[in-house]
Amino acid sequence: MLDVRTVLCKGTLWVILLCLLVTCGTSQQLRAHRSDPSECANCVDEGVGLAGNRWTMPLLKLGEKRYYLGIFFKANWYRAAQYCRYHGMHLASINSQEENDKLEKHIRDFAGLGHEHFWTSGTDQAEEGVFFWMSTGRPVTFTNWNTGEPNNFRYENGEEEHCLELWNRDGKGLKWNDTPCSFETFFVCEVP
């Protein structure tokens, strides 16, 4: 059986471990199964993955939600969703201006990643122009679209834009954009 981590990470496992070491402190705290989550305030052991393959991930707590920034490799929307699910999370849903602003500030301030693209769980694959959060099944009610978006741009290869990303297109902050689900970019996971 193929190991999902190998397929998705393609050699970035050492980067993840380095991040955990920096975020959590000593290697004593990097156990795959943590009996005392208070040992590391920024980590959690909630991944459900395959039996015996649980991971401790560095999480960001913003308000009542906890997020994981998938910044160690880029993935298409489906692989990003698969990665989040494998680790007991799902792609993020953004339900308020406050949540959007806090997430944007962290992405912008975190190593200057505000110019990158980040997948969310938003999609209109079921019905064109009607976006919902795949992670919750709920319709998108709060929006923060870039000017002229969503536009479902059709590419020369026939591909259309059906997945929602955060993107700082015009230097005006991370706004929403619909883009082809096959594009590879960073992503934001959320703990359910």
Automatic annotation (TrEMBL):
<dbReference type="InterPro" id="IPR016186">
    <property type="entry name" value="C-type_lectin-like/link_sf"/>
</dbReference>
<feature type="signal peptide">
    <location>
        <begin position="1"/>
        <end position="27"/>
    </location>
</feature>
<dbReference type="Pfam" id="PF00059">
    <property type="entry name" value="Lectin_C"/>
</dbReference>
<keyword id="KW-1015">Disulfide bond</keyword>
<keyword id="KW-0732">Signal</keyword>
<dbReference type="InterPro" id="IPR050111">
    <property type="entry name" value="C-type_lectin/snaclec_domain"/>
</dbReference>
<dbReference type="InterPro" id="IPR016187">
    <property type="entry name" value="CTDL_fold"/>
</dbReference>
<dbReference type="InterPro" id="IPR018378">
    <property type="entry name" value="C-type_lectin_CS"/>
</dbReference>
<protein>
    <submittedName>
        <fullName>Putative brevican 1 isoform B</fullName>
    </submittedName>
</protein>
<feature type="domain" description="C-type lectin">
    <location>
        <begin position="62"/>
        <end position="190"/>
    </location>
</feature>
<dbReference type="InterPro" id="IPR001304">
    <property type="entry name" value="C-type_lectin-like"/>
</dbReference>
